[in-house]
Amino acid sequence: MSKYSSKWLHVSEPSPHVLLVQLARPPVNAFNTEYWKAYGKLFNDLTEDGYDVRALVLASDLPKIFTAGLDLKNAGTLAHYDQLQDPARTSLTLHTLIKTFQQNITSPERAPFPVIAAVHGLAIGLAIDMIASCDIRYATSSASFAIKEVDVGLAADIGTLALLPKITGNLSLVRELAYTGRMFSAEEALNLGLVSKVVEGDKDEVLHAALDLAKVIATKSPVAVSGTKRLITHARDHSVMENLVYTQSWNAHALLTEDMKECVKAIKEKREPKFAKLRVASKL
């Protein structure tokens, strides 16, 4: 998987159609501009290349931390915008920067395959933006989280405040965590709905649990799983009736898939179904 690995992103394929992406920028996986652009590029490349990935696990390669979030040394480069003379031009420049940052970090949500976050250790600031954009989130019992942006003088702007109110019904707790920047435990993250499973143990245990889940998902029809992901995301952002209408249009073509025939045939023959890759490369 050297084609997709980069300086701080280690990509492997531990089982067929399952990719493991490990964050690997010592000492704390802090994200500078180069790092978050590489992160977004990875998901875009996998999609554009039509690589046959049916589930992806996102984890940290560091022993005690998922990520400490934004590299504050890199964030300091924003200070040069203060030197620009025209506030309007400064604002437009920053708008473009924030938009690009958002698009890169939220790229897992737009991927045609499920992304599972396996969190251990500290997950701070940008970490919440990242995992909130994933489909499923597991954490170790010792993991700790924080929406930390308020402590560096800004409102979280890369995805947390847009996604967390959709993920959880406890808006009171979302506001408390965002206003205070306090640490919260894996148990509280589970109650909040930020994670769906707390795994006893540490890095290896949560990674194994996430990979086991990914293996199960990878056995399913990629047409069905990708369509399900798209329809769930649409339902989150639209009314019930709007989603039903959208589903009519989506399944009007998706029901023509050969995967349905293969599923029925595999059941009759008492074997595991075999599916074609979801898409071909889109690059010209």
From TrEMBL:
**Protein name as it appears in the record:** Delta2-dienoyl-CoA-isomerase
- Keywords annotated in UniProt: Fatty acid metabolism, Isomerase, Lipid metabolism
Q: What family is it from?
A: Belongs to the enoyl-CoA hydratase/isomerase family.
Write down the superkingdom of origin.
Eukaryota
Record GO terms (molecular function): delta(3,5)-delta(2,4)-dienoyl-CoA isomerase activity
Q: Does the keyword Cell cycle apply?
A: no
Q: Please provide the Gene Ontology terms (biological process) for this protein.
A: fatty acid metabolic process
The record ties this protein, via Pfam families, to:
ECH_1
Q: Name one GO cellular component term.
A: mitochondrion
Xref: CDD domains = crotonase-like (cd06558)
Q: In which pathway does it act?
A: Lipid metabolism; fatty acid beta-oxidation
